[in-house]
Fold these 3 entries.
Entry 1:
Amino acid sequence: MPALYRFHPPALMVLFADLASHARGQSKVFVGTAGSVLERSNADGFRFYAHQFYDGDGKKRERYVAGPIGAPEPDATARALRLAVAETKAATTSLRLLGREGFALVDAKTYATLASLYNHGVFQAGGVLIGSHAYGLLLNQMGVAGAPYATEDIDIARREKLAFPALPEASFLEMLQATGIAFVEVPQLDARQPATSFKERGRSRFHVDLLVPAAGDNFQVVPVPELRAHATALPYLSYLLADSQMSLLLAREGCCMVRVPLPERFALHKLMVSQLRADRGGKSEKDLFQAAVLLAVLGDRHPGAIDDALRWAPLSILGRLKSAVRLLRQLLASDHPRAWDELNPE
C-alpha cells in the first residue's frame, strides 16, 4: 500500500518556520500580486505615486498611493510600500521552492479571498478556515506531504460572535469583493431565506460558504450581524471549532496567517461528516482519506492527541464515528498501528 504521507526534510521546515515568522509580522498583506510602485503625473503636471499589481481575478490594476512626489509624507508612504513589495517578492522565492517540494499552496483566487479576510481581521477575531484548504494548511504545519487535493470551495466558520476590536465597515460580501473577484450572493432554493453562500459571477464554481454550529441536528440559516451576513448552521460544527490555532497559508503570490482547527479534531470531524452525508459518494471517500492521513501522522508523531480528541466527541455521534473508524482499518491498522490503537482502545 502506498504511504499515506512523507515527512518534509528539516531544512524545508526551517524555511517554513521563517516564512511563518515573516507572516506573523504582517498587519496587512497584498490581495493579489505584490506588484510595483510607479511614479505618475496627470495632465496638470501633478506627480504622484501609484501601485500597479494583478488582483485576485488576474486583472492588471493601478491605484493611487500618495502625492505629490517630493513631499515628505508621500515619499515616506511610497518608501514603506516599496519595502513591503520587496519583502513579499523576496518571500515568493521561498514559496515557489516549498511548492515544488510538495507543500500545499493555494491558487491565486483562494489566496486573494483569504488574504482579504485577513486584512479585515476575520481570522484574528476568531473566524476559522475549515474544509480541504484547512487540511492542506494542517499538512504543512505538521511537516508532511500527502496526496494532492483539489477544491473550489472555501468554508469559513465562526463558533461565536467574532471579537473585532471595532465592527468592520465592510460586510462579508464586500470583503470578498475587495479581491477584485466579482462575488455575488447565491440565492437559496427557498427565496425567502437569505443567502449563506457567495460565488464568483458567471459559470465559475469558485465559491465561499459561511457556516456556524447548529444548536441541534437541524440545518438552519442564522444571522451573523458583525459581518452583515447570514450563515448555514451545521450539526457537530461546535466540536470542530472548540479549539483552533493560527497557521500559515502559502501561495505563489504571498503568505498570511489563517485560523484553522486542531488536526485531531479536524480528523475526527471528517469521520463524523463522512457518516452524516446523505450521498456516501466521492465526498465521503475524500473525508475518510483526509482523516486517515491526519490520524496517521498524529499517531506516529503526537501520541495521545487522538485519544484526547475522542474524549470530547459528542456522545450522540459515537456510534457513527465507530462505523467510520472501521472503514479506516486497511489504511491504518498495519502501517500506522499507534493511530489504530488510539482509535480502538481496549
Entry 2:
Amino acid sequence: MEKKLYRIREGKKIAGVCGGIAEYFAIDPTIIRLIWALVSLFAGAGILVYIVCAFVIPEKTTNYIDVE
C-alpha cells in the first residue's frame, strides 16, 4: 500500500494538518504540533505554511457507509 499525506478529521485541532503529518511519519501528533509552533515563533512563516497546507493537502476520507 502506498503512503499518502492527508489531513485528518478525527483528533484534529484546527485543520488536521499536523495530525496528518504525524500519521504519515507514524509519530505522536503532539510532537509535530510543538515543532510547528516553535518554527512559527522563531521562523515566522509557519502560520502561512499551515494555511497553505490546509488548502493543498486533501482531507482523508473514510471508507464506510452511514447507516440510518
Entry 3:
Amino acid sequence: MATLAWALTSYNLALALAALPAAFLARRRPLWVFGVGIVLFAAASLVCAFASSFELLVSARAAQGAAGAAVVCGALALLSHAAGGDAPAARIWAFAGAVGAAVGPAAGGVLTQLLGWESIFLVQAPVVLLALLTLRGARAVPDLQPIERPHLAANAALLLISGALVAAFFLLVILLINGWRLEPLAAGLVVTVMPLAAIAAARRGHTITPLWARTASGVILIAGGLAALGWLPHAGAAWTVPPQLAIGAGLGLALSALTERALAGRSAQAVHGGWTIAARHAGVVVGLLLLTPIFTAGLERNEDDALAAGTSAVLDSGIPPLEKLTVARRVLVAVDEAKEEARIPAVGDVVGDRDDPAYDRLVSSLQDQLDRAVTNAFSRSFLAAACLALLALVPILLRRRDLTV
C-alpha cells in the first residue's frame, strides 16, 4: 500500500509545488503555458502507459503533475478572458473541478476493468490533446493587475477537505476491489454515486446562503459520510451507497463554494487559481501521508484477529477432526502466500470443494471472518479522514465574514 500510494503522492506533490510558478507564468502568457502544459501532460501520460518499472512510473507521474499545474492555471486565465469576467470564470472553473474530482475514480475503474490500468494513461493523451483545438482563434491578454494576498481561510479549508477526500477516492476503491473482491468495472459503477451527488449538489448549492453556511454544510456532510464508512455494519457495496451520497453532496457544496471564494478579488485569476490548486493537491499529499500508515497498521492488526477467528471457526466446525488440522495448515499457507502477492486469500480454494454441508458452512464462516477483518482494517482510516474533514470547519467559522457573499 505504501508503494502504491507513491504513484498518487508523486503526482499531487509535483502539482502542488508547480502550481504557483505556473500561475505566475500563466498570468503573462496564458496561451503559451496552456499549450505547452497540454503537450507535456500528454507525453508524460504515454510514458506512464509504457513504463517498464515502478520508478519510471513514479517519475512520469511527477512530470504529469508539473504539466498539469500549467494546464489548470493556463485554463483559468483563458477562461477568465473568454467568460468576460472573473466571477463567471470562477463559477465555471469551480464546478468543473468538483465534477472532475468526483468522476475520475469511476472512469478509472471502468477503464481498468475493460482494458487494463495502462489504458487510463493511453486514453488521457489523445483526450487532453483535444484541448489544443480550443486555442484556435483564442486570444488572451496578460493580466497585470496587482497581486493580492491569497484567501488563507478558503485555501486552508480546501487543503483539509482534499486530504479527507483521499479516503473516499482512494481507500474506498481499494476496499471494494482488493478487500471485497469486486471487479474494477463493478467498483467503478459503485463509486459513480459520488459524482452524481456532487453534480446535483453543485448545481443547487447556490440557493444556500450565506456562502459560509453552504461550505459548512458540505464539510459536515463529507465528515458524516466518511464516519459512516468507518462504522459499516457489514461488508457489501450496497452499504457504501448512503455514505457516498453524503460525501458527494458535501463535495459539490463545499468544494465549489470554497473555490469560488478562493478566486475572488481583483488580483489575477491565474494567481489565485495557483494558490487554490496548490492547497488542494497539498491536501491530497497530507491525506496520503496521514492515512496510509493508519491503514497499513489496521491491516496488520486485523490480520492477527482474522487468523485467530479463522482458527476458531475451523476447530468449531463439523468437519472430521483430522481434516481440521489439514484445513488449518492450508489457511496459514494461503495467508502467507497472499501476503507475498498482496492479495486476499480465496477461502473456497483453501477449504476445497466438498459435497458436504459442513464444509459449505465452514467456507461461509471463514469468508464472514475475512470480510469482517478487511472491513475493520479500513475503519480507523475512514474515521481519521472524518476528523480531518471536520478540522476544515475551524478556518470556515473563524473567518465567516470572508465567506458571507
